[in-house]
Design goal:
Length: 73
């Protein structure tokens, strides 16, 4: 049986506690950085899709004007 008034026991508890807190901090920091990078990538992809849809809309409008004439509404 280990008596909890020995210095080595409290040192071991302190080291393990500090390791646990450090590990949780490291994992949460890396997770947040990864999520931010992924959200930024998704946001830029949506921007590209939006730009491509704008160009597609412009091209379809040009084809409609050429096919059906510019004065038809």
């Amino acid at each position: 049986m280990i008596v909890l008034n020995e210095m080595q026991v409290w040192t071991t508890i302190g080291v393990l506690g500090a390791t646990l807190v450090g590990t949780i901090t490291l994992v949460s920091t890396l997770l947040l950085r990864t999520l931010r990078a992924e959200f930024a990538a998704v946001r830029s992809e949506f921007g590209r899709v939006h730009d491509r849809l704008d160009h597609l809309d412009r091209d379809v409008n040009a084809l409609m004007r050429r096919t059906f004439g510019a004065d038809r509404d």
